[in-house]
Amino acid sequence: MRVCVGTIVHHPEDARIAHRQIRALLDAGHQVTYVAPFTHCNVTPSPEIRAVDVPRAVGPRRLKALRAARAALAKGCRDADLLLVHDVDLLLALPRRRPVTVWDVHEDTRGVLEGEAYLPGPLRPVLPRLIGALERRAERRLHLILADESLRAHFPGGHPVVPDHTDVPATAAATGDDRLVYLGRVSRARGAAEMIELARRLRPHGIRLDLIGQADAGVRPLLRDAQREGLLDWFGHVPNAHALRMAEGALAGLSLTHDVPGFRDSTPARVVEYMARGLPVITTPLPGPASLVTGTGCGLLVPFPGAIAQDGAGHDPVDTVEAAVRAVLALRDDPAARAAMGARGHAEALRRFHWPVRAPEFVAQLERWARAPHPAARPSGQALPA
């Protein structure tokens, strides 16, 4: 099978796209053409793929990237059996003549936009409606795969779920006592301001914070200032396998995500990755992470930013940062509890979230769709063939 994979929004080495899905396709013997912003992200394509370079869609000015993407996808699809796109943006750039087309829905885009502050005022009321119309049209005309069960509420057509699992090592490294880690995109809604303040309050205790991931434009000046002040180390985007190795040996993994619609019902991939690496998890109480933490005893919960909660003893109201400081210091001072949490999280990740177990299902689904007739418009809500 020849597959064309496309993104103009994500980094070419995005873990879900490159290190899970494309890797699974290559391991199964399929050929992959990858349309992605290699030059913009300073990435050298793997010799295992056929690479097509495009500009990256950044901020509100995306027309140049969309025009280039349409031409690149037409080129990449010329001899392909299936087209797999990863961005809402690319729904506007699909070539007229194309093979069976699949949209991988990573997140609730409209919900995420509600929680982020980077949209110019005039776009705020318009863009969610435009995205909603694109999503409804895509569900009628394309095959969809969903990154999380929570997305079924937005896409009720019986689409298969390909979760954001990870490669779980057979054993996890021991935790340390002087370093926190955060993996993933850094933004205000993902707790950037709270993590910077946490790093500030932990500095007198000799505990540093490593932020590993690309950052939204609005928070980059804050991160640079914090790094110059010596509060934290921000590494920017790091290839997933290397980022996970960097996380090993930390005291805990952070996920201080705000309570916004786009995140409310999903489990951030970083939480699963912390568990896979044997790190205790410190997270705000989104239902997915909270269920994992309380159900397995693999970490500690702190209140959402803007909320005030009682501490564990039932007194002294604390905010997110103060609660996180207490959680970090408690883990630092109790190595046995820290190790037990990490071990429980690792065992659960190995049991439930090991990507190589799910990879064959993902590849088989694409193979079935590639063998089927070109998808025609169908009534919204009709389930796709299994």
Briefly characterize the structure:
The chain has 386 residues and is an alpha/beta fold. 38% of the residues lie in helices and 13% in strands.
Order of helices and strands: EHEEHEEHHEEHEHEHEHHEHEHHH
What is the number of beta strands? 12
Helix segment tally: 13
Q: Distance N terminus to C terminus?
A: 18 Å
CATH H-tier superfamily of the largest domain: Glycogen Phosphorylase B
User: Any idea how many domains?
Assistant: 2
Please give a structural write-up.
This protein has 386 residues and is α/β, with parallel strands linked by helices. The protein folds into two domains: 2-165 and 355-371, 3-Layer(aba) Sandwich (Rossmann fold), CATH 3.40.50; 179-352, Glycogen Phosphorylase B (Rossmann fold, 3-Layer(aba) Sandwich). It has helices spanning 15-27, 63-76, 109-115, 127-141, 192-202, 220-228, 240-247, 261-264, 269-276, 287-296, 320-333, 335-352, 355-371; strands at 2-6, 31-36, 50-53, 82-85, 100-105, 143-146, 179-183, 208-212, 232-234, 252-255, 281-283, 299-301. The strands form two sheets. It has a six-stranded parallel sheet with strand order 3-2-1-4-5-6, with helices on both faces. Strands 9-8-7-10-11-12 form a six-stranded parallel sheet, with helices on both faces. It is globular and about 60 Å long. The relative contact order is 0.13.
